[in-house]
Amino acid sequence: MQDINKQVINFQTKNYNYRLLNKKHLFTSKLLLSATILILVSFLTFGLAGCGKKAANKNAQKGNRSAPVQVEVMVAQTGLLLNTVSGTGSIIANEKAEIRPEISGRIIKILFEEGAMVQKNKLLLKMNDSDLQAQLKRNEAQGILLASDEFQKRKLLEIKAISQDEYDAAKSLLLVNQADKQLLEAQIAKTEIYAPFSGKVGLRSVSVGNFVASNTLIATIQQLDPIKIEFDVPEKYSRFIQPGLEVSFGIDASDSTFMAKVYAIESSITTETRSLTVRALCSNPSGLLKPGTFARINMILEKFPDAIKVPSEAVVTVLDGNSVFICKNGKATEVPVTTGIRTDSEIQITKGVSAGDSLIVTGLLQLTNGSPVMIKKKKTEGLAETVN
Questions:
Q1: Quick check: pTM over 0.90?
Q2: What are the DSSP E strand ranges found in 41-177?
């Protein structure tokens, strides 16, 4: 009887557990179904919203494309245009010489002040020549005797009292004596140093009493008025450089602008730099311009009195050249142009633009041929006029 009761209880327990499992399974299934429905609804909602946004964006883009581009314009005019080239150079002396003795000796006189102006042929330095002067006196005494001997033998030769050989020997001795005298006089002359030209003497490196060897540097003399400016010009501008071309330049030591004229041009292009060396002369009465000074050079190579020039930013580079946009009847018209010389901020237009055309100078990247435009500013810089 107990076994039967146990079996009944077990059967009831299993039956209860089975019903419980069925309830859990049913609940889980309902939960999964609800989640699936929720996900589908979300996808549909976002999809519809996305489609709406895309449509709105497309409509906005269409609206933007049709909206006028705000631009700035200027009126092209004719005016003076200068083709200039700038560079750097150095100031050098018009003439420069180093004072050096040709012979060795002791200095007995220095006849110039350091940094002073001296005139051409002024005696600057004297070296000891006492031994040379003594040799010259002896030579002169010998010369008197030899000249007398040559005279007597010439008279004897005329009466056939001596042979030709005897006379020739006497004549040769006299000629040698005269040559020795000329040599001594030349050596004595080398003991004196004179100014080769008028100019300013620099600092000396010797003193009275110094024994100096030949070719020792004593001082330097430079001619500073007029003064030279030396500079290099790129070879592409070499055809413009001619004697007489005016050159303006400035230096750090002065706010003034100085003028010079080209007087000499190197005969060939320097291969290392592909440039042409040029020299110009400048008046320098005050001595403000000193050799070795750095100079900023500027030259006007060409003048165009009636040129059309536009700002560099107004010219657009295209595949087959250059173009500009002209404002006509509220629209941008692209016009091919031929350009000439270029400066730092402007470009010469030789074909394609006429005086009075309204050039668009901003917003070019947003423009195509025929784009509607709206003028937001009327530029009046340079050759520009206000657009009415």
A1: no
A2: 69-75, 78-99, 105-110, 117-118, 123-127
